[in-house]
Amino acid sequence: MEKRQKILIVDDERFNINVLADLLKPNYKIMAAINGKQALKAVQSDSPPDLILLDVMMPEMDGHEVCRKLKADEKTRDIPVIFVTAMGGESDETKGLDIGAVDYITKPISSAIVEARVKTHLSLRQQTRDLQEAKALIEVQKDRMQDELNVAKNIQLSMLPQDFPAYPDHDEFMLHASMEAAREVGGDFYDFFFIDEDHLCVCIGDVSGKGVPAALFMAISKTLIRSRAKNDLSTASILTQVNDEIDATNEAAMFVTVFLAIINIRTGNMLYTNAGHNPPFIKRSNSTLECLGSRHGPVIGAMDGMTYKEDKTLLAKNDLVFLYTDGVTEAFDSESNLFSEKRLADLLSLRKYVSVEDIINSTVSEVNRFQGDAEQADDITVLAIEFLGQPKGKPVQNLIITIRNSFSEIDKVNQRFNTFADYCGIPKTLIQKVNIVFDELLHNIISYAYNDNKEHDIIIELEFSGNRLSIAITDDGIPFNPLEAKKPDTELSLEEREIGGLGIHLVRNLMDKVSYKRQVDKNVISLTKQIQV
Amino acid sequence: MEIQTRDTNDIKVVELIGKLDTNTSPDAETHLNKLIKEGVKKILVNLEKLDYVSSAGLRVLLSTNKQLQSTSGLLRICNLNEVVQEIFDISGFSSIFNVFSTESEALNDF
Lengths: 533, 110
What we know:
The structure holds two protein chains of two kinds.
Chain A: E1 6-10, H1 14-24, E2 29-33, H2 36-43, E3 51-55, H3 63-72, E4 81-85, H4 90-99, E5 103-106, H5 111-159, E6 173-180, E7 188-196, E8 199-207, H6 211-229, H7 235-249, E9 256-264, E10 269-275, E11 281-283, E12 289-291, E13 311-314, E14 320-324, H8 326-329, H9 341-350, H10 356-371, E15 380-387, E16 396-404, H11 409-424, H12 428-448, E17 457-465, E18 468-475, H13 494-498, H14 502-510, E19 513-519, E20 522-530
Parallel strand pairs in A: 1-2, 1-3, 3-4, 4-5
Antiparallel strand pairs in A: 6-15, 7-8, 8-9, 9-10, 10-13, 11-12, 11-14, 14-15, 16-17, 17-18, 18-20, 19-20
Helix pairs in contact in A: 2-3, 5-6, 6-7, 11-12, 12-14
Chain B: E1 2-8, E2 11-20, H1 25-37, E3 42-46, E4 50-53, H2 55-70, E5 74-78, H3 82-91, H4 93-96, E6 99-100, H5 103-108
Parallel strand pairs in B: 2-3, 2-4, 3-5, 5-6
Antiparallel strand pairs in B: 1-2
């Protein structure tokens, strides 16, 4: 049952009070006061009236005076006041309304009019209260939303490396990047980090959606990429795993476009995978502009169980790789023209830039200039890396040997390696140690990595640079890690069985670093040995 | 790999020339087993002309040693080069085998 609203009737004549009271009693609670002083006291009570019917002509304090006092007090200001009086001229009415009354009823009163006016003004009063409450709620929500936007922005900013120059100690490359967030955070990110001494990983991405969910998803994606890349030198393999992991936890059907590259900063080899992202540009040292257009799979997080591919390109001295998100190409001006890929391509190829910082800053300011007054719709993210080639005096030698999976081929490997090693000036003792390593590992692989009787290729990649020899042995057999395998021959005595691990023990001791990785569908063993000069 | 044998008194000196790895170990094993079957009790394996040995080669030497021991025979090894010595050290075989730097030292130990 709704609470009955309360009406205060103020009149110096009891008779008038009673007339009004009798009229209104059936529907409202009634309070009465016979002079101004009493009226003011009544409104200060614990349950003030919802409406006041106020006589004007009263001794000591007239109605106008009472009304002024009521309107001056914050607590009573909002209670609607209706003057009830014999004074009926227009100027009287106006005066009353000016003082702050909401209406004016002339005596002799008409019951119907009094009832109607009371009802109307009480209803108006209620509506006003409701509106004020709603407005307060909206303010709170607005503040909360603004806080959320700040949270999202803070998440995004805190996750992106912002310290430039990024690697002042490295003279093999120069790198610069920038991310300008839209008002509503769009989930763009970039990242760069070293996987090992020779391999720099660089990536850029764009999460679907906006606000805090996008910022959180961006944080997850970026972290997963970093963590998977720790043990993996294949961009296809990294993104394949990241995709599987993201899909498993992704109930919001969010996805992220990613371009991931791993650059060997000694050789300039760049391995890359594009998962639905804007194709990056390479500005070659001769100023030609190349677009890396191939796609190696869908956006990350869209489909379970995808296997991503990868491509290679070789960076020569002063080649520059330019990564960006669609915040650049899809920026629009106040006439809804798009910045477009063509404009970006022209910008990159037609101008001369003095540094990576220059190209980044120029691009960003061009986009801002193009945008003009139009609001920035999406995060604008760009990253540029210029390959500077070999530091002086450190030439690189490479060799790839491919053999069949048969024991007789092991000699071939050693012969070709010996020639290569002689050419590189590798000392004889190390050559012999590597021969032993090849003997142990290749024998194991050929014996245990295949469960069919088919011919398979085993690929041995060699690199010698900076007095360091790096070897990678890749086979396409079943998942098999020779570094862990023990010879399964149980007919050997305990002593003889222990020798099963002997070969691997030798390998580990003859080389500086030995590791195994399963990359998509291949086994890869990596070894390095630093030569003390 | 080439195998050359000669006799010094009642000691069979077996020279392994080249490398002792998974491909060449079977030959060495066959040869040494034959000697033991023929009744040879004292074998000196001279590795002066051996470039390197892998785990397969170590296994052959171990097996030869055990067979000789079971017939109360003796196995000695001499003239290890730098790499082979390192392999013996890493594998712990330096402590299992009687290893000598020169042939004459080894011959005196029988």
